[in-house]
Write a structure and sequence with these properties.
single chain, 140 residues, alpha+beta
Length: 140
């Protein structure tokens, strides 16, 4: 049995975690049909608060986390203001759409159509991941 977040907003279960269990397949004609049963997992507010407080107690640099959280909120607010300002300029949003469409077309042509360029893209991504993550144990 596995637990998965529910994404169906029309069913009224949006944001809740459900336990999904697939029953044995029932053979109908030539195809097998699966029956899926969902059982709602209750989230209690006290449990959430308890978990958050335990995580907060485990944090060593509480002031650093608070500063980062505050800076993140300011950044989100500032980004929203910039996007709103750019959106209010009459021709700029359409120009940005064209730039994005052009870049997408170029990226697709450059990296995704041909097999050799896809290999190059994968190598570039792996190189970037190794630079970010640092050397692994076997590479030292």
């Amino acid at each position: 049995m596995r637990t998965t977040p529910c994404r169906a907003s029309r069913s009224g279960f949006a944001g809740r975690r459900l336990q999904v269990q697939a029953a044995k397949p029932a053979v109908v004609g030539r195809s097998a049909k699966f029956v899926v049963r969902a059982k709602e997992d209750k989230l209690e507010p006290e449990e959430i608060i308890k978990t958050l407080s335990e995580k907060w107690e485990g944090v060593e640099n509480k002031s650093e986390v608070a500063i980062i959280a505050g800076a993140s909120l300011v950044f989100i607010w500032f980004s929203s203001a910039v996007v709103s300002a750019v959106d209010s300029i009459p021709l700029l949003p359409k120009l940005m759409e064209l730039v994005g469409l052009g870049y997408t077309a170029w990226f697709t042509y450059r990296y995704l159509i041909f097999k050799n360029s896809r290999k190059e893209l994968v190598e570039d991504i792996e190189e970037l991941k190794s630079k970010i993550a640092g050397a692994t144990i076997g590479e030292e």
